[in-house]
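Q: Two folds, back to back.
A: First:
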Amino acid sequence: MESEPNTDLTETAASLLNSNNTGALATVSVKHEGFPFASQAPYSVIQNPQDASAKLGVPVFLFSDLSVHSKNLRKISKATLLIQSGDSMQQSRVSLMGDIRRLENDAVEQARQSYLTQHPDAAQWISFGDFNFYAMSIVDCYVVAGFGKAGWVRV
């Protein structure tokens, strides 16, 4: 039985996603089959092209083809992005689960503008031939907003 949507948790998830620009990205390891591989991943957020009214936007990443997470995503596109507001267990956090795929054609320009706004230093390497934009299609979302305030959020 699916629970009713919790608007407070939805607002917390959207706030965390939109007010931060880096998180811990866990992908499925190619080198060590079945194990998660986590790394810091800068991101920006664009509007959801399938649902402009969605509270949660779409996280966008800029990855080198040589990076471990890119290699992992080429084999298995499933990943989790953990975003937290601080380093204490009392801080709010959200785990976004979804598929991350390389962006093509028209979507690249929107991602480029959004990403460079959040990460201006990326201008140094954004044009290197092995860097590409990726976007996460969020499948599910788990939010912890403090003691006793946690749950899955419908996306």
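A: Second:
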Amino acid sequence: MLLDQESREEDIKPWNMDINSFCMLMHLSQFASSFFPLAGIIMPIIMWQQFKKDSSIIHENGKQIMNFMLTTFLVGIVFTLGLVAVVMTLFTNATSDQSPAIFSAMGLITILIFAAGFGIAYVVFIILAAIKAYHGHVGKYPLTIRFIR
């Protein structure tokens, strides 16, 4: 049975590509939101759903992408709530007689460092997973919560 499935997977050409190139494109398609709103969310889902029953490697890569997108969404919500808390704290401190410039500068620097680090990690994680997928492995993302197993 396993041999039959492997030979069947070798014959699959999703979008006229080999499976490894398709998996790499599936990971890189997350960058599509840079050009079209929500495309980076919709494209990997469509690609995964279209071929997940035909290939186990596409299915595994798709699950990794979904887990990464859900994790980054969750981190984005937490970051936004943290940003609101920092802004409210800075606003509260700015209205008091304490030194508002120090609080404002510290809060702004913290926000910028976290946002830059998150953005760099996001890009690097996607590129590394795409390279792994191109070489025939499952592109796993570090620091990702496994929502879909």
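Q: And?
A: Residues 2-134 form one domain.
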